[in-house]
């Protein structure tokens, strides 16, 4: 099984709540945090691997920003390692005052 298949399987397991008759706030919050972290990493992976045309399909990413991301990746194939790395580029990754990450993960 590939790494991505394993991750997807783990994500689906998190979503399988059919056996639970009741879920506490703590259990719910833990699942939400885990899913958010997984989704954030998926967004980062996409930024590091998507073509310029695919990047432009993201809300808030135009031709200039997509080209800039592709240029950054020439410095390092895994230029972005976490959503916090986006902060280094300030306004480039914000729209209308929204913080980084919301462009990709909303």
TrEMBL record:
PROSITE patterns: EF_HAND_1. InterPro entries: EF_Hand_1_Ca_BS, RuvA_2-like. It comes from Cuscuta europaea (European dodder). Gene3D superfamilies: AF1531-like domain (1.10.150.280). SUPFAM superfamilies: RuvA domain 2-like. This is Uncharacterized protein. The lineage of its organism: Eukaryota, Viridiplantae, Streptophyta, Embryophyta, Tracheophyta.
């Amino acid at each position: 099984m590939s790494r991505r298949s394993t991750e997807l399987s783990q994500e689906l397991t998190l979503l399988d709540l059919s056996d639970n008759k009741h879920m506490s706030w703590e259990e719910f919050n833990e699942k939400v945090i885990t899913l958010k972290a997984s989704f954030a990493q998926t967004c980062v992976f996409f930024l590091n691997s998507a073509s310029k045309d695919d990047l432009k399909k993201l809300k808030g990413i135009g031709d200039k920003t997509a080209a800039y991301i592709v240029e950054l990746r020439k410095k390092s194939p895994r230029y972005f390692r976490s959503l916090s790395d986006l902060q280094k580029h300030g306004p480039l990754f914000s729209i209308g005052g929204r913080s980084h990450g919301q462009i990709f993960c909303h």
